[in-house]
Amino acid sequence: MHPRVKPALRRGWRDLTTVQFGVTRAHAVVLGPMDPATAGLLDLVDGTRGPAMLRAEGERLGLPGHHVDQLLSRLAEAGLLDDATGGGEPAAALRKHTEVLDRLRPDLASLSLVDREPTGGIRKLTARRGVRVQVRGAGRVGATIAAVLSGAGVGRVDVLDGGRVEPADVAPGGLPAEAVGERRDDSARRLVRRCAPERPPRRPRPFRSASRSELPGCDTELGRKAGLDGRAGSTQVPYEDPGLSLVVLAPRDGLAAYAPDPRLVAPFMDSGTPHLYAGVLEGTGVVGPLVLPGASACAGCLDLGRAERDMAWPRMLAQWRSGRSRPVQACDLGLAGTVAGLAAAHALAFLDGGLPASAGARWEVPLPELDWRPEPVEPHPDCPCGAARRGNPLDVWEEPADEREDTSKEVEPHETMAL
Ligand SMILES: [Zn+2]
After folding, report:
1. Is the distance from CB of 152 to CB of 344 less than 8 angstroms?
2. What CATH architecture does domain 132-385 belong to?
3. By the 8 A CB rule, do 44 and 2 touch?
4. How far is the CA of 267 from the centre of ligand 1 (A)?
5. Are 167 and 140 in contact (CB under 8 A)?
6. How far is the CA of 275 from the centre of ligand 1 (A)?
7. How far apart, in whole angstroms, are the C-alpha atoms of residue 322 and residue 112?
8. Which residues are within 8 A (CB) of 266 and not within 5 positions of it... i.e. 6 or more apart?
9. What is the pTM of this model?
10. What is the 162 CA–ligand 1 centroid distance (Å)?
11. Average predicted confidence (pLDDT) for the chain
């Protein structure tokens, strides 16, 4: 192990003996009291020395060996320590590809804040390389989501859409103007390849059935509690590809994201494939819900709940769905970009093993105020997905209270390190 104080957090002294790591409320930690010799040692915990060398350095500064060990364990407890050489074989392989790692360093630094373990960041980053995501829809929103996921290190991003690229599909970060007239799926595939920090293999890897517990995003305690492990099984999966960790549904027609048709996602519900909706409908951006089949509200729950609150909803929906498709979608380019960015961030948070706020809620952002609002989406007792029968289903996905407390505390010098 080569300990390193997480470089992602700015360091500053609140007073002569109290050091604060980080700026923002969500991730800042305050440690103290700290004497000058310990503070000097802190500068040497930069990933270039192992514990033995740090102990030797500590002695030179007049600090006994156990004091150095105590400092390291306290830093680790506070989630402030990285291991510059840990993370196993995949991490070692990634570190050799410096041009790839250089592209992903900001993502790695960010992951090191989300995961408090010394090798958590690099492990999550390398896990992304084994993930497979499908994005359905290659318009302004969908293509940009695919590009962001690919650029963030997701190993395989498949984009499905029909037809040919139209001028209105072009977006910065999405399909380029040169793609107009090309097949949408071909064009999106090239976009994904161009954005990837490393060249993925041209040919798909040989088919391998992954059990749900092997899939990132479902390999956590939370995933097991939610019953996602084993749902997909290893052989008898009805959907054609059990290796999908997530499907992002970002249809070019925003109505299909705002009022999704439950019949279209029946295969994902059957196979237990998590899926996330995103789109822009008539000047309103939507991200969510993230559906964890059987554990959180799905498109069917959404539909039943809406019909309960508005008797005319099914009749209206039938008219909207059967009507002639809109020749022009009201889809502000800035709004499409922010929806794509937030949807991709929610997707990554889930793939990295977290539970983003789109599970059980839809985030809506209407023009022109552009204030994100959560719209809770409750499991419906009549929905065959069964999420309502799990009691309070999202409880099992929530982080333990003590961890939540750690990441949301005020920046106050209440973390003390007795040295
Ligand atoms: Zn449901």
Report:
1. yes
2. 3-Layer(aba) Sandwich (3.40)
3. no
4. 13
5. no
6. 13
7. 48
8. none
9. 0.85
10. 28
11. 85
Q: In the structure, what pLDDT confidence band is assigned to residue 295 with cuts at 50, 70 and 90?
A: very high
Weakest-pLDDT range from 198-207, 304-313, 383-392:
198-207
How far, in Å, CA of 333 to CA of 172, rounded? 9
Ligand 1 centroid to residue 263 C-alpha, Å: 12
- Following CA atoms 256, 260, 262, 267 in sequence, which dihedral angle do they give, to the nearest 10 degrees? 60
State the chain's maximal CA–CA distance in angstroms: 79
Ligand 1 center–CA 363 separation, angstroms: 18
Could you tell me the two tokens for 169? 């599909």
How much distance in Å is there from the Cα of 384 to the middle of ligand 1?
A: 6
CB within 5 A of ion ligand 1: which residues? 298, 300-301, 383, 385
Q: Which residue has the tokens 């084994």?
A: 130
**pLDDT tens for each residue of 133-163:** 999 999 999 999 999 999 999 999 999 999 9
Say how many Å lie between the first and final Cα of the chain, rounded: 23
- Helix orientation angle between 88-96 and 120-128, rounded to the nearest 10 degrees: 80
Domain coordinates of the chain in residue numbers?
88-128, 132-385
365: enclosing H helix or E strand = strand 361-366
Instruction: Using the mean position of ligand 1's atoms as its centre, give its distance from the Cα of residue 301 in Å.
Output: 4
Q: What is the whole-number distance in angstroms between the Cα of residue 131 and the centre of ligand 1?
A: 26
Give the whole-angstrom CA distance, residue 188 versus residue 193: 9
Q: How far is the CA of 146 from the centre of ligand 1 (A)?
A: 26
Distance 381 CA to ligand 1 centre (A): 8
pLDDT digits (tens, 9 = 90+) for 189-208: 999 999 999 875 554 444 33
**Is residue 418 scored above 50 in pLDDT?**
no
User: How many angstroms does the Cα of residue 166 sit away from the middle of ligand 1?
Assistant: 35
Name every residue whose Cβ is closer than 8 Å to that of residue 196 and which is 6 or more positions away in sequence. Answer: 150, 151
Q: Please, what is the angle between helix 333-351 and helix 140-151, to 10°?
A: 40
